[in-house]
Amino acid sequence: MARRTTSTQSDPHSARLKRLRARMRREGHDALLITIENDIRYLTGFSGEDSCAIVTPKAFILVSDFRFAEELEPFKRRVTLLMRSKPMAGALADAIRDLRPSSLAVQAEHITASLRSLIAKAAGARKTHDSVGLVADLRIIKDDAEIRTIRKAARIQEQAMEATLAQIGVGWREDEIAALLEYEMRTRGASGTSFNTNVSARANGSKPHYRAGRTTTAAGRPLLIDWGAKYEGYCADMTRVFSFGRWAPKMREIYEIVLEAHLAAIDATAPGKTCAEVDLAARSIIENAGLGDRFGHGLGHGIGLDIHEAPRLARGQDTVLKPGMVVTIEPGIYLPGIGGVRIEDDIVITERGRRNLCTLPKDLSWATLHG
């Protein structure tokens, strides 16, 4: 597991590369083929697609093509650029033959079977080894620069939500609300959304991964919104539930249960706790209310360059929380035909506890809309 670094470094990418090389040495690899785009971004800051990288103790080769030549100019100081004129597989094979590594690790969680076969021929089958998590295990601990970026993403999405709530009312379609919210995030600096915006009106909130459709909002009926802004490549993720006017008794009941579970889980989030222990802090409250079977997903997940990263907060997950991890806390209760409640914030683990990167209220009064 990586050690957290501070923002005092002038070049966080160099520090990340140094930690990766140290881990490669420990595992006996003198070369690593990186095919996961966000791993390349983590190590370089380059956000272009259709590129791969090869890391050795002395070299960092970035394989790309003409489309990104101008964008890659600033990176020449820290990487060796190989601008391919042939398909990626052939370019990688040529580069690996030239390097002649004694042990080449490939990202088994991502590489295709056909590319792995070609790379094994270039490096030698006995020298090619599958690896999992060489970079992902570094990414699990965010440095200060990453935490600041995620916090900025959270601020953008919160401001966008406040602007959206000021405009919507009864009779709006889910897809109209989603489009407005995404527009408001974009105008505030978001490069995009962390995922497909989930706007669930009426009973659609009982479907945890529902996608906005044409159902309209209605008085006295719930509205669940799960949304996220992406800023400088980093994701944030929040969920809130609203009602236009009076809350239906059952929705009010489960809202209060979920809010209690959400706050209990945040209180339980601290360095040294396991992911399963934090999950249990919320799950036991929902189970004691007789609704355990209506909370069928894990409590949360890590966020960063990807919307779902390690660690995973759920039953059976014995990963120990450490300072620098950023996770979601999102318990929920889902009642088919009635609706659902999920309340979600983004939490960073600190040396002495935790810090909530989100600031939007969660009380029933705030969540009651008039429009």
Structural write-up:
This protein has nine helices and 20 strands. With 371 residues, it is of the alpha+beta class. It folds into two domains: 127 residues, Creatinase/prolidase N-terminal domain (Creatine Amidinohydrolase, Chain A, domain 1), CATH 3.40.350; 226 residues, Creatinase/methionine aminopeptidase superfamily (Creatine Amidinohydrolase, Alpha-Beta Complex), CATH 3.90.230.10. The strands form six sheets. Strands 4-3-2-1-5-6 form a six-stranded mixed beta sheet. A four-stranded mixed beta sheet has the order 8-9-12-20, with helices on one face. Strand 2 and strand 3 form a beta hairpin. Helix 3 packs parallel to helix 4, helix 6 packs across helix 7 and helix 8 packs antiparallel against helix 9. The model has no long low-confidence stretch (mean pLDDT 96).
Largest sheet: 6 strands, mixed
Indicate the CATH class of the largest domain: Alpha Beta
Mean pLDDT: 96
How many whole angstroms does the radius of gyration measure? 23 Å
Low-confidence stretches: none
> What's the tally of helices?
9
What is the 3D form? elongated
Numbering strands along the chain, what is their spatial order in the largest sheet?
A: 4-3-2-1-5-6
- Strand/helix succession: HEHEEEHEHEHHHEEEEEEHHEEEEEEEE
SS class:
alpha+beta
What is the CATH topology descriptor of the largest domain? Creatine Amidinohydrolase
What is the level-2 CATH architecture name of the largest domain?
Alpha-Beta Complex
Helix content: 25-40%
Number of strands: 20
The CATH superfamily of the largest domain is identified as Creatinase/methionine aminopeptidase superfamily
Distance between the termini: 49 Å
Domain count: the total is 2
Beta content comes to 15-25%
